Description:
- The radius of gyration is 16 Å and the shape is globular.
- The protein contains ten helices and nine strands.
- The chain has a domain of 146 residues: TIM Barrel (Alpha-Beta Barrel), CATH 3.20.20.
- By secondary structure, it is of the alpha/beta class.
- The strands form three sheets. A four-stranded parallel sheet has the order 3-2-1-9. Strands 6-7-8 form a three-stranded parallel sheet.
- α2 crosses α10.
- The mean pLDDT is 94.
- Bound molecules: 3-phosphoglyceric acid.
- The site of 3-phosphoglyceric acid has 12 residues, from β9.
Amino acid sequence: MSAVPxxxxxxxxxxxxxxxxxxxxxxxxxxxxxxxxMACALAAGGIGAxxxxxxxxxxxxxxxxxxxxxxxxxxxxxxxxxxxxxxxAAHAAGAGFLVSPGASPHLLAAAERSGLPWLPGIATAGEAxxxxxxxxxxxxxxxxxxxxxxxxLAAVRAPLAQARFCPTGGVTAANAAExxxxxxxxxxxxxxxxxxxxxxxxxxxxxERLASAAAALxxxxxxxxxxxxxx
Length: 231
Ligand code: 3PG
């Protein structure tokens, strides 16, 4: 039987997922049949980690389709994970990681029980600190633009020196490079790489083009593993 992963193991796994590419596409699918061609287009463009949100009924089947296909170099995670039931369903569907827009005691307990790496959302230093006490070092900064954006990330760099962020929410092709220049940004997340309308139109070569441009963004910041407390 494999050992239960420690928080340090999960943070290390998360660091490698966030280092897959400068941009993690946040994808919302209306039809699970679109999941595989969409993931192939993203992979062809050089994207390694894909967040499929659970905002639609197709979300879980989409995750299952991508996970089952086992595309080389592609890891699919579940996004917009809001409660324990969704944690269990995402795990059962084959998600390799979980992303949430925030954190609550029940969600945190369920994410920890699952053994999956979890990227919890935070929008304040206090929310980050509460999770850092439990060994978390990597956070979704959400909603990034509405919560202070680049200025917020620059301001917390010194006091929260151990923390790494994936800003999401209002990050675009136009401002992603500015976020990625910050040393405490592990990667950025956003829906612009695989927009819902292009997925619905099966515009796979357009999505591949957007993915290539996203994967080519220069990343100057905090890739790799932030230092961890003793497990
Ligand atoms: C998310 O869940 O991360 C956001 O909804 C993505 O935000 P965006 O559409 O502004 O990229």
